[in-house]
Amino acid sequence: MLMGCSSDELMLALSTHKIQAGKDSIAKKLTLQQAIDSRDALAKFIYGSLFDWIVEQINKSLEVGKQCTGRSINILDIYGFESFKKNSFEQFCINYANERLQQHFNRHLFKLEQEEYELDGVDWTRVEFEDNEECLNLIEKKPLGVLSLLDEESNFPKATDLTFANKLKQHLGSNSCFKGERGRAFSIRHYAGEVPYDTNGFLEKNRDPLQTDIIQLLSSCTCQVLQLFASKMLKPSPKPAASSQPGALDTQKQSVGTKFKGQLFKLMHQLENTRPHFIRCIKPNSKQLPGIYEEDLVLQQFRCCGVLEIVRISRSGYPTRMTHQEFAGRYGVLLSEKQLSQDPLSISVAVLQQFNVLPEMYQVGYTKLYLRSGQLAALEDRRKQVLQGIIRLQKCFRGYQARSRFRELCNGVITLQSFARGENTRRRHASLGKSCSAVAPEIPDEQLREIICLQSAIRGWLVRKQLKMHKLKQSNPVNAKVKRRSGRKSSDMKDVPQEQVQALPTALAELQRRVLKAEATLGQKEEENTALREQLQQYDAKWLEYEAKMKSMEEMWQKQMASLQMSLAAARKSLASDNTPGEPGRLDASTAPHLYDSEDTMSMGSRTPGGSTPMKFLNIVPDAGSGRESNGSLTAVNHLTKEFEQRRQNFDDDAKALIEIKTTQPASTVHPDVELRKLKMRFETWKKDYKTRLREAKVRLNKLGQSEVEKTRRKWWEKISSRVQ
């Protein structure tokens, strides 16, 4: 159904084979195994042809609208090396392809690399590696190679897989990479290890028979793709002798091994024309499971693939290579001094020495300069800086050239325009003159004279006006006075001697100079007066600010003084109440906290000005007995009250004097900030001392009250105890 043919025709093509005998054809029935092989050959042919057709269609679709530039990046993903318990013809072909690609790998990374060092005279110690050239000769050498012997046996009609194995052991037994086994088996020592092969099916898979009956069946199918495949197989051979004979298609058919070898050589030829980069895939374990790492297996792969030798060559090799001409042409501009010798080798060595490249980091060959990795970074950075400087210089020079050309072009355009405008003006003037000469005879002579007189009068008035304005600009008030005086006394000037008349201009010049000097001085004084007025306004603003501050301080002092006065009044009241006959010397408990709160209120207020040395008072020592102690405490409180009133009066007077100082002293000698700071310091010092003495008085009063209470308690206890007794 998929092929588009009848099942009977397909069954007949797979089970019989037509043999041409002269003009007659004989149909030979195939055995079951031969029919199975024929079926498999048909399936392989359809699969391979379909794969090639799909690739061709994809390439055609990608080539639409694109030009072939000759530059491309190709990725070759090869199948890994295979070694199973039973290895047949397929594994042999895959391992043969891997051997050829390994030889390509060795050639580029070992042979060509080291040959280039040796041919260019580089000091190099050769690195030994395992070469698989002998294994390749075993497989593809003619006439005694595995593929040659396989094709030879495939052409014999009575050959079997056993005869093929015996022939391999007979001709290749002396080769070190070949090892004969019992029966139909043999082994080949590949670069990745020894692999045993079973020759069972080698000959049939190599022949891959596709009979002409099957090809004709495909050409008669309704599927166009199969018809296309069959038409390619039925194309006449380019050799006329072969195409004229019957059965030429079968005789020209190549074996699978020969086809595979040809395709492999075509691939290698394409790889040789490219610059290869290799990626090695290492199998971590043989169980194909994640998270398992077998060290021996990985190390074996490293050794077989030549990775260790590649690492050794890379560490001791020189990956960066440039010819002397390329290096000198690219980095020769970095030399600070011009070299006498201009040959590329000398320039290259001079550049390396100038940038202090160590001798072990490069090698100078006959034709190339060999550098280790990372040595061109500094040269590239310096070259980039030099090129940027050159570009900036070129930019400035090109700009200068463009501006010069533009100025020349503008000057040429202006000159051309001036010539054109002059020519136009001359033409207009000539035409105007002709028109005036034509109109002039018609005007009477009297009218012409009147016009000329009017024009002369107007021009004279304009000239006199300009002269008068010019003289007014140069004149000054002194000159005007001199002119007025000279006008008034013009009659007297006639009697003045000639010498004085001659000295008059000199005197006038001197007067003018003095007037100019006086005007300059006047302007300078006006500027000074303006500056002084500005300073005066600033001082006025400052005084207003000082007055506001002093008023606020005075209000704050009054509040604090009132608080202190209230505290003292409360203290006196408590002392008066404590000195009653019933309870002498007792201090009310509600009074002492009130006094303490007053002190804290005074200290927590805003900081007010003050400060000179406070008045010193003698420490009040309490006398013996409760009466003396109470009288001493009352005396101390009275002293504090008097001192408070006196200090309050003093600070009020100082504040008023500081406010009124503006009217008593000039602004230049007053320093309000200094005076305010001193007054503030005095007030703070007195306040601290006064608070200390208040606390001492409070402590004395508390002690006095406690002693009186204790005496009362004793008397009460004695009375109670006597009653109990």
Low-confidence stretches: 239-252, 580-629
Task: Identify the overall geometry.
Answer: extended
What is the average per-residue confidence, as pLDDT, rounded to a whole number?
Answer: 78
Number of helices: 23
Task: Give the DSSP E fraction (strand runs of 2 or more residues).
Answer: 5-15%
Radius of gyration: 64 Å
Main sheet strand line-up: 3-4-5
Provide the helix percentage.
55-70%
Distance from N terminus to C terminus (CA atoms, Å) equals: 142 Å
Structural class: mainly alpha
Q: Total number of β-strand segments?
A: 8
Largest sheet: 3 strands, antiparallel
InterPro entries: IQ_motif_EF-hand-BS, Kinesin_motor_dom_sf, Myosin_head_motor_dom-like, P-loop_NTPase
GO molecular function: actin filament binding; ATP binding; calmodulin binding; microfilament motor activity
Coiled coil: 508-542
Domain Myosin motor: 1-384
Description:
The protein is mainly α. Among the domains are: 1-60 and 209-237, Four Helix Bundle (Hemerythrin (Met), subunit A) (Up-down Bundle); 380-432; 547-724, no CATH class. The protein has 23 helices and 8 strands. It has a 3-stranded antiparallel sheet with strand order 3-4-5, covered by helices on one side. α3 crosses α4 (133-140) and α15 (324-331) crosses α16 (344-354). It is extended. The N and C termini lie far apart (142 Å). Residues 264-286 are annotated as: Actin-binding. Pfam families: IQ (PF00612), Myosin_head (PF00063). Residues 1-384 form the Myosin motor domain.
